Amino acid sequence: MHPSHFAKSKPDAPAYIMANSGETVTFKQLDQRSNQIARLFRAHGVNPGDTIAIFAENSPRYFEIAWAAQRSGLYYVCISSRLTAPEVQYIVEDSGAKVLIASAGLSGVATEVRQITNLDAYWSIDGDIVEYQPLEELRAQQPDTPIADEMAGTDMLYSSGTTGRPKGIRPQLELGQKIDEPNVLLALAKALAKADGPDMVYLSPAPLYHAAPLRWCMTFTRFGATLVIMEKFDPEKFLELVEKYKVTHTQLVPTMFVKMLKLPEEVREKYDVSSLVSAIHAAAPCPIPVKEQMIKWWGPVIEEYYAGSEGNGMTWINSSDWLNHKGSVGRPVHGELHICDEEGNELPVGEPGTIYYSGTTPPNYHNDPEKTKGALNPKHPEWSTLGDVGKLDEDGFLYLTDRKAFMIISGGVNIYPQEAENVLITHPKVADVAVIGVPNEEFGEEVKAVVQLAEGIAESEEVAEELLEFCRSKLAKIKCPKSVDFDPALPRHPTGKLYKRLVRDRYWGKEDSTIV
């Protein structure tokens, strides 16, 4: 389905509600405004197959823009609101975006981006930005009827490349595809839904530039569900919203579970969460005790999946199956699983290896043919991987045993240490550096830099703070280390390869580390 259908069948029903402000956008308004923005795209020469970029906080305008691009046959790039101007510049230029739409709350970075890029148009939402045109005013000048050449678009989201630079995941866009044709996620969600569309209320607590919140929200809108969008996650506010709106579905990350479980018992018991029929989680490993407590508290409504922005496969597990296979991320619901060794040979049940999917479309990394090729199995090039390591049990349930290329997952956010390493190594006091994830009770992992100082530089708290500030001046804070340790000589092979696993394992209590 498409929100335009619900604009006819229930025009005054809320398509979404902003949690803090209470601003409500109905299906009729969403349909009309997305039509107007689609017309605005065409008026500025943005045609099927072109790209636009959104750099915004969670805003009531977000879905008006996304649905306008979705019904215009465009790629829409959703950029993290935490990035610095050079990082935003790289993404808009690498993606080939013709238009950048930014929210006024990010005006400082957005203004700098305007000065260092040269796109066809710059539009602002939720207020004014210097040298940006107000989208709301431009939109109001357009008719609210559909464009003549409506066709389905798709998101283009960014993941990390081997050099630390983000790489766009650019699906093949079938120009001319109808706007209401189903996709894999829609079919899956429909099969899992335990309430009718008109009765479904989906609560989204995370930033909309992330793949999962964006895609699940748009999928539930296709069902006719009402979305409740949190501008920022707060554990008690989340529970309050579940009770207030009788939320039926939501998607979280394990860190959110931890924060809610740490609330005083009287606060947790204060709110009625019995309306929940499906609480989905993903994006980071969930400690077994945490998930056990959540199932005990909310009942058997906790569901988990393992997938990536690349969309090349997906597993799923419900509470009942998980209680019988604790620690598993489920069985495949999209694609067929294969566990393989480094040569691409399939391994027996129980043996860990690289996780591959078959029967799906392999990922296509924009402007990175090597990364695209590297995702394919050497003996079965139609099989593809995200680079993660896992094993299968005799019942076909998948267990993750490692994560790709030392990617750090902190609070459900993917952090690629190469970016911070590339910055820190340029500091004159740094001879060598390894950025790793170390244990953090609340977030799962946090970012740490292990630094080998240049000759003649003494270790001190002042130097550590200087390096942290240097990194923060170049990268988004979330990508930067929270702390610095010093090492007189980081372990490197004579060829120059850093044995990062040896460094990382010191902090994870592993004594039998092997060089990889």
From TrEMBL:
Pfam family, one: AMP-binding
Domain AMP-dependent synthetase/ligase as annotated: residue spans: 6-360
Domain (AMP-binding enzyme C-terminal): residue spans on this chain: 419-497
GO MF annotations, alphabetized: CoA-ligase activity
Record-linked PROSITE patterns: AMP_BINDING
SUPFAM superfamilies: Acetyl-CoA synthetase-like (SSF56801)
Source species, domain of life: Bacteria
Name of this chain's protein: Acyl-CoA synthetase
Species of origin: Henriciella mobilis
Organism lineage: Bacteria, Pseudomonadati, Pseudomonadota, Alphaproteobacteria, Hyphomonadales
